[in-house]
Amino acid sequence: MKIGIITVSDRSFKKQREDLSGPLIKKMVSNLGEVVDYRIVPDDRLIISRTIRELIDEIKVDLVLTTGGTGLSSRDVTPEATEDVIEKTLPGFGEIIRVKGFEKTPHALLSRAIAGVRKKSLVI
């Protein structure tokens, strides 16, 4: 399985803060397949959606994992960017992400994480 990882963070994109979540996710999914692409992008809806499309349509990844940008601030647009490119939603993934996150912090309930399918690729 080919995997692409996208970290969404203005500060990490500008190199003002180290991205810790992307490398952690890469390590966590290494047993599922090969991470063929890992990118840090700013909190920009068009850039996020374009990156997801590129990973699936051009690089042909089977799985896209996004991290960041699911909160409540005006710059948190990862769910909207994901909705722009997926063909079908898979609500169960967002639900389980919130449940598992809630086991660590009640703030996880504020996550707007979503998942869906584009072509035959899964986007989470």
Automatic annotation (TrEMBL):
PROSITE patterns xref list: MOCF_BIOSYNTHESIS_1 (PS01078)
Listed pathway(s): Cofactor biosynthesis; molybdopterin biosynthesis
Gene3D superfamilies: MoaB/Mog-like domain
Matching Pfam families: MoCF_biosynth
Keywords, in A-Z order: Molybdenum cofactor biosynthesis
GO biological process, one term: Mo-molybdopterin cofactor biosynthetic process
Ranges of residues in domain MoaB/Mog: 4-116
NCBIfam families found in the cross-reference section: molyb_syn
Matching PANTHER family: MOLYBDENUM COFACTOR BIOSYNTHESIS (PTHR43764), MOLYBDOPTERIN MOLYBDOTRANSFERASE (PTHR43764:SF1)
The protein, known as: Molybdenum cofactor biosynthesis protein
